[in-house]
């Protein structure tokens, strides 16, 4: 399904394979993850700054909803004008997730596809403590302890991320319609638990992809802490 990206993946495949000749593949994956997240860091800082701006204008948004709630067309127009006037994008928070999805697809293919652009996938021969990077937890056999250790780390990171998310949930603004309050409250209950989705992915994905996910989740946890302490509006 992702074979169409193989021509673009081949140079990266060769680079990772060459680097793994003098560094363990696990270290290469961690370094690759850190490089990707460093490139995305300015975007994440901008996203958090946009979140602070949305919190700032939340009372104004509530006022507009109260004034024009019975006229959907007028409401949408007024909300758009408000966001433009205040320089706030209503969709800024979605961008980092959208960027990470193709990156995840690339990493998954690198450690799952038998061939990359018609060339044998050399990354399939690399191991972590004797466990192939392509192995899955269900079929790891003697390598199951490696997966259990990775899952344990993933669970810890997911738990800390859940607590971090809960500590920074945004309460519904005053004046918001009851239906909107209900939606926000429901989201505030669900969103913190989404961090455990990475644990499920580690269980079902190849070892190499799981290592990428755990490293990325840990980076996200630390990055959010740092960004919240340094970014202001």
What does this protein structure show overall?
With 233 residues, the chain is mostly helical. The protein has one domain. 68% of the residues lie in helices and 3% in strands. It is built from eight helices and four strands. The strands form two sheets. A two-stranded antiparallel sheet has the order 1-2. Strands 3-4 form a two-stranded antiparallel ribbon. Helix 2 (25-68) crosses helix 3 (72-86), helix 2 (25-68) crosses helix 8 (207-230) and helix 5 runs parallel beside helix 8. The longest helix is centred in the N-terminal third of the chain and has 44 residues, at 25-68. The mean pLDDT is 84.
Question: Could you give the topology of this structure?
Answer:
Blueprint (H helix, E strand, L loop, with lengths): L5 H14 L5 H44 L3 H15 L8 H16 L4 E2 L2 E2 L6 E2 L2 E2 L11 H24 L10 H13 L6 H8 L2 H24 L3
Antiparallel strand pairs: 1-2, 3-4
Helix pairs in contact: 2-3, 2-8, 5-7, 5-8, 7-8
Summary, kept brief:
With 233 residues, the chain is mainly alpha-helical. It has helices at residues 6-19, 25-68, 72-86, 95-110, 144-167, 178-190, 197-204, 207-230, and strands spanning 115-116, 119-120, 127-128, 131-132. It contains eight helices and four strands.
Give the tags.
233 residues, mainly alpha, two-stranded antiparallel ribbon, 68% helix
Terminal Cα span: 42 Å
What portion of residues belong to β-strands?
Answer: under 5%
Domain module tally: 1
Q: What is the residue-mean pLDDT, rounded to a whole number?
A: 84
Family: Belongs to the OXA1/ALB3/YidC family. Type 1 subfamily.
InterPro entries: YidC/ALB3/OXA1/COX18, YidC/Oxa/ALB_C
Protein name: Membrane protein insertase YidC
Subunit structure: Interacts with the Sec translocase complex via SecD. Specifically interacts with transmembrane segments of nascent integral membrane proteins during membrane integration.
